[in-house]
Amino acid sequence: MPDYPYLEKIITARVYDVAIETPLDHAPMLSKRTNNHIFIKREDLQPVFSFKLRGAHNKISQLSEAEKAAGVIAASAGNHAQGVALSAQKLGIRSIIVMPKTTPQIKVSAVKHYGGEVILHGNTYDEAHLHARAIAAENGLAFIHPYDDPEVIAGQGTVAMEILKQHPDHINAIFVPVGGGGLLAGIIAYVKKLRPETKIIGVEPEDAACLYAALKAGERVILDSVGIFADGVAVRQIGEEPFRVVKDLVDDVILASTDEICAGIKDIFDDTRAISEPAGALAIAGMKKYIATHNLSGHTFVAIDSGANMNFDRLRHVSERTELGENREALLAVTIPEEPGSFRKFCHAIGQHNITEFNYRYSDKTQAHVFAGIQMPNSQADTPKLIDRLNNASYNVLDLSDNDMAKTHIRYMVGGHANGAQDEALYRFIFPERPGALLRFLTHISHRWNISLFHYRNHGAAFGRILVGIQVPEEEQTEFNTFLVELEYPFWEETNNPAYTLFLR
Questions:
Q1: Residue of 9, 41, 52, 107 with catalytic role
Q2: What confidence tens digit (pLDDT) does each residue in 52-83 have?
Q3: Where are the alpha helices (DSSP H) in 37-78?
């Protein structure tokens, strides 16, 4: 693999025909709360609300005249697509964007607004990518990769060039969201040449950690699956060229949970009144985790807000999970006596904590199971103390704050046990959120096995999530297992999940 002269490439990159030099904003509230000097690089303020147009335009502008005349094609579910479309429009070039069928309409409309011709194909980025490659080969179009290309990497590296110009004083670390690795590679290539003492720290979602896995293995690996919440960085394999650039230079990789990302979105909003997309808040989430883990104060940190292409409907989900992400709320399952005054006694045992949620259902004549949301004013240190106090008061307590099924489904459907639901098994599924997908699922299952529980909640994401209780006699288990494979939807069995046992089984 050639050693591209990235410093020169970044300095001479052609990005400002379409991109702007975004501000490096001080975050006073977050700085005060963490006792550090926090700055946010505002790539959410770009014309397409993402840094992606930098790399796209640098690549497209350097195509030959023949390549420009033929047109360009890209595969993307959002930000890269808009960057390619705007760049092509600026240069008077035809652009075709292949997008998964699951892409939210707001992103499809944005690409069309910039003159891009949209082709909807497949349910995943990988399927769209393969289709775009085939169209490119058949029609002689230039394929614009979202991250695995030196010119794209150099374009993204201009973010680092601006940061060092805007903050000439010492920076302890720059936190960078990681998907395919193009942005991280561009920033590392520039900063490590000019300020090698500044740490460059990548941040990935816990359920889409392709760089973390590659560094651990010593080579690029393909993840079996990736989470979909931070869709802007939902990549199964780090790019080949980005990995070559970063593998020996990246100082650390931090993994952030969905709840921590939601809290990061709120942090950015509190300081800027801007709403970032999940991938955009990823660096903030990782930075806060890094500060807390190493107990740091008085340092100067920069976090890159990489984008703001947020589907408005998802804000409901973000708001619900923010307090958990900040460890300011605990979700507890508590068994209390079934007797008059038991709720009052339970509240007394909780003390000065506010109850944010209280779900109750009669269990039997002796006890009841309560699902309670409880505020934790002093963050995570309060939760173990409260649980100890409740245990000492003879309550049986289960902390569900990190139980994804409890947070996503159980808290909305606590309604009691079904003693007559024989042979019931519980499964979680995800499926593409498009017209007919839910009907397809029900059509496949309803005439074969009885559905004894069903919960579906639209979170405004590209994929829907459902929780299903299915009665499957033991003699039909083999047939049912075959059905699960043939259905081709990712699934997880939750029959042994303690939240299910307490509230529904």
A1: 52
A2: 999 999 999 999 999 999 999 999 878 999 99
A3: 52-61, 65-70
